[in-house]
Amino acid sequence: MRRNLVKIIATLGPSSSSGSVIAQMARVGADIFRINMSHGDQRSWESMVSAVVEAESMVERDLGLVADLEGPRLRIGDIEPVRVQPGSTIVFSYSGGDVTIPHREFFEVLGEGDIVLIGDGKVSLIVESVEGLTAKLKVLQGDLIESRKGVVVSGKEPELPTLTAKDKMCLEYVARRPFSHVMVSYARSSEQIELVRSILRDYGRQDVKVLAKIETPRGVRRVMEIAQVADGIVVARGDLGMHYSLEDIPVIQRDIVQVARTQYKPVILATEFLSSMIEKPAPSRSEVVDIYEAVRLSVDALLLTGETAIGRYPVKTVQWMSRVIVKAQQGLNVDRPPAVAQIYRLARGLVELAENLNAILVIYSKTGRFAERISSFRPTKPYYVGVPNEKVARALRILWASEPVVVGYTSYEEGLVRTSRLLEEKGVLGPGDTVVEAAWSSEKGVYLVRVRNMVV
User: Fold this and answer.
1) Residue 216 to residues 153, 212, 304, 362, 384: CA-CA distances in angstroms?
2) I need a labelling partner for 103 at 20 to 30 A (CA). Which of 41, 137, 151, 329 fits?
3) 342-356 and 369-376 are packed helices; what angle lies between their axes, rounded to 10 degrees?
């Protein structure tokens, strides 16, 4: 049951939508799977959800399942693909033109001299003129322009709805399926996060964790406010790179990670870790270094996107990321946030007690909150969490070093006994091991800590 400290999230798509491929990715290191709701429809999503459930039975463990909402983003309308060359001019219009942009907000903020980026910035243009809902632009960097690609006006953020009608439809779908997390794209306020949580609560799914994707300047400015209410933070480096100079991204990444850590919230880094493996069977040296340095930041998880969704080598991609994670976590000097409240002091004390005794840490948590606190102090080897059901297990997959074990709903003390017994049956615990067992009941205010030496 050896697991990575830093978890791997793999995006599903045409290359990875079968149960067998998902199971292979899980066996080589993936713990969580993401469905990008910017693409496809309920029929295709349902196929992927069923494939994850099928893979769970193959690997005999619960897997995290993340729904990534499309969010309120400017996108190109339905057009015939057009390849543009540097120096050429092209017309953008609300309806018609060479390229359709079906968002009035785009033309309302657009001005002469603005830089417009499309997709991941492969196409860049400068605005020559704007007349109402039509604009003439000159191509600076050319490539293929296709339907549904994102559009960014550099340095400007149009006022867009908090949630789109599609997002609300997606949340209704999420509530009916075994998702453990929802990613809120273009998170820019605490109210946005609370609205998503409220909708999920109305559908009876308060167990679904709400993750805020930070990918715009407004989100960066308000990251502390957002982190205080979200269940986790995602650093979306691809979209951030559309708004900031590339040399600024490492600093912004570090600062967002630090904010999440000080709020004891899980933090995920996303985008372009192994993009060369979309076409090639091995990564570049710079990609390996990027993963290595991400692990050294002590983030909870790394997110693969196109590499596993449309790439030729989804399983090899996960395998390579896992290899680098294992290497990077050797001798890792973790940075632990200060513990102020009593429950956080207890969590930090348990992590340090287990390390000082070279012991295996085993806890029982009915809701998973105790495990979240343990993970926030970055134990230097995997720890085991007894949980009452699969929902809690799936949600904990994303946390640093956590290995959930479903043992049923019971008292905290009996939960610890069952968890350790099951780990003994699986061969995780054995003669000669020292075990630190712990549980905390918020209702009763009872802390249970026990140190056991397994008899040889």
Assistant:
1) 11, 12, 20, 39, 36
2) 41
3) 60
**How are beta strands 7-11 and 82-83 bridged, if at all?**
unpaired
> What's residue 13's pLDDT?
97
- Token pair 């372009």 is found at 272
Residue corresponding to tokens 């269940």: 231
Which residues are CB-neighbours of 349 under 8 A, at least 6 positions away? none
Sign of the Cα torsion 430, 434, 439, 445 reads positive
379 CB neighbour count, 10 Å cutoff: 21
CATH architecture, domain 7-71+163-328: Alpha-Beta Barrel (3.20)
Residue numbers of the chain with a pLDDT score lower than 70: 1-2, 443, 456
**CATH superfamily of domain region 82-153:** PK beta-barrel domain-like (2.40.33.10)
Strands 89-93 and 434-441: unpaired
At 417, which helix (H) or strand (E)? Answer: helix 412-425
CA distances for 304 relative to 10, 68, 275, angstroms: 5, 13, 9
Q: Which two tokens stand for residue 346?
A: 């207890």
What pLDDT is recorded for position 1? Answer: 43
Q: Is the pTM of this model over 0.90?
A: yes
342-453: CATH superfamily: Pyruvate kinase, C-terminal domain (3.40.1380.20)
| CB-count burial class (<10 Å; 0-12, 13-18, 19+) for 358 | exposed
Instruction: Tell me what pLDDT residue 162 has.
Output: 87
The DSSP code for 336 is P
Rounded to the nearest 10°, the torsion over CA 50, 51, 54, 55 is -140
- The vertex-62 CA angle with 400 and 228, nearest 5°, equals 40
Rounded distance between C-alpha atoms, residue 169 and residue 157, angstroms: 25
Q: Give alpha helix (H) positions in 161-284.
A: 165-175, 190-202, 217-221, 223-229, 237-243, 249-262
Phi, psi of 289 (to 5 degrees): -65, -40
Which of the 8 DSSP states describes residue 70? -
Helix (H, G, I), strand (E, B) or coil at 37: coil
Name 132's Cβ contacts closer than 8 Å, sequence gap at least 6: 107
The encoded tokens of residue 266 equal: 């899980």
Q: What residue type is 247 in one-letter code?
A: E
Q: What is the pLDDT of residue 24?
A: 98
Residues 6+ positions from 454 with CB-CB distance below 8 Å: 429, 430, 431, 432, 433, 434, 435
Residues 149, 154, 157, 162: what is their CA dihedral angle, to the nearest 10 degrees? 30
Helices (H), 267-411: 285-296, 306-309, 314-328, 342-356, 369-376, 390-396
